[in-house]
Amino acid sequence: MPSYHMDSGFCQAKKPITIRNLRPAMTLSVINSPAFTATQYEGTGMAFWLMKSEPDAYGIDDLKRDKREPWDGIRNYQARNMMRDDMRVGDKVFFYHSNCKEPGVVGIMKIASKPYPDPTQFDPDSKYYDSKSDPDNPRWILVDVAYVKKLKRTITLTEIKAHPELDDMILTRKGNRLSVMPVTEDEWEVILGLE
Length: 195
Prior knowledge:
This protein is an alpha+beta fold. Helix content is 17%, strand content 26%. It is built from five helices and ten strands. A hairpin with a 6-residue loop joins strand 5 and strand 6. The radius of gyration is 16 Å and the shape is globular.
């Protein structure tokens, strides 16, 4: 089982973000945190996400080969809460390569399972082992993701930051270190248009 980029930081936003495409019932823990304020609008029933992984740990080519994979190793409460409470089977996800020479969006995947306990939290040999996690009440969860496609080219973080339409994207916020985050439908379309 691959190990993914572990969340260890937090987000801080100086201005409100607007989430337009989300399910009406979504809580979006990241938005409910003190670091964010947001206006939520009724949506289409499908949500859009961005999930980061270090390509030397598990990249888009690995997912293309494997077709479906558990997204394990998340150890940040905001990211966990979004996976547990807000993601739904069929939601679309940008696969983002992080901590590499050219970080950026490299592909598309989809959520392929309901959330379930991350087994790495119970494995003493795993770097994601959590001795305080109770098997009867697991602290950490994961979802399976399924490969959809590899983009023709990497849409780099530098390129994303250069587009004013993406100024409010959580990814571009100073101090953002989350490896799982929501993306609005407008942001999704802008990024796809850059391919």
